[in-house]
């Protein structure tokens, strides 16, 4: 049987070109993936640091160190946070982003916000508390004096001095109240506070005609944001069902972010 010698070179040429084409496309795919990886920084992410409580210049330094940028987009007023320092951020700490991402910051307002002092004399404690909070102020101490009407506001003070209604005072300033206390109606009860955040615990304390004493945090509370999420794990006096105490009694609390510590109570 004769072999067609002219067909051999043609077959080899076809096979060789197929192999070259396969190699060419393989290299092309590899190059494309490499270029995309460089352009999109595939799998190259940065963990967003926590900028809480930093000044804006310090936040910028930290951001630059991580290959990020920061931009102040809003401000709020928080009396317990240093003015001009970071209150919150977006994306949140721990988020994964690409290099050069801009982190939006909300800072504590640099200007002091002033609010008018309300007239609380003659109000009940509950009414006075509502008015104080609505005006942007906070509850201070409850001081009791014998009187016919329990929890009737007899006078109002800021840092031990009388402040006339309408006087401009700093927002979040604590307002102390002088209240009446009838000998026939002077008892209240210690509420159960474990598991509550500070604002909720504070409300429960004042709603029960008690004073908030020392507020402390354990080692799990490291940042301002931690203080917002921390919960009560200890209180003194402790909760005792059905055991009365005198109105105005001071309640001390300790807070933590450890759920195990709270559950243990």
Structural notes for this entry:
This protein is an alpha+beta fold and 265 residues long. It has a 4-stranded mixed beta sheet. It has a 3-stranded mixed beta sheet with strand order 2-5-3, with helices on one face. Strands 13-16-14 form a 3-stranded mixed beta sheet. The model has no long low-confidence stretch (mean pLDDT 89).
What characteristics describe this protein?
single chain, 265 residues, alpha+beta, 31% strand
Give the strand order of the largest sheet, numbering strands 1, 2, ... along the chain: 7-11-8-9
Task: Give me the secondary-structure category.
Answer: alpha+beta
Radius of gyration: 33 Å
Shape: elongated
Q: Write down how many β-strands occur, each being a DSSP E stretch of 2 or more residues.
A: 16
Mean pLDDT: 89
Concise description?
The chain has 265 residues and is an alpha+beta fold. Helices cover 28% and strands 31% of the residues. A 4-stranded mixed β-sheet has the order 7-11-8-9. Strands 2-5-3 form a 3-stranded mixed β-sheet, covered by helices on one side. A 3-stranded mixed β-sheet has the order 13-16-14.
Fold blueprint:
Blueprint: H1 7-40, E1 46-47, H2 56-65, E2 69-76, E3 86-90, E4 96-97, E5 102-108, E6 114-116, H3 125-134, E7 138-146, E8 153-158, E9 161-162, E10 168-170, E11 174-181, E12 187-189, H4 198-207, E13 211-217, H5 224-229, E14 231-236, E15 244-246, E16 250-256, H6 259-263
Parallel strand pairs: 2-5, 7-11, 13-16
Antiparallel strand pairs: 1-4, 3-5, 6-10, 8-9, 8-11, 12-15, 14-16
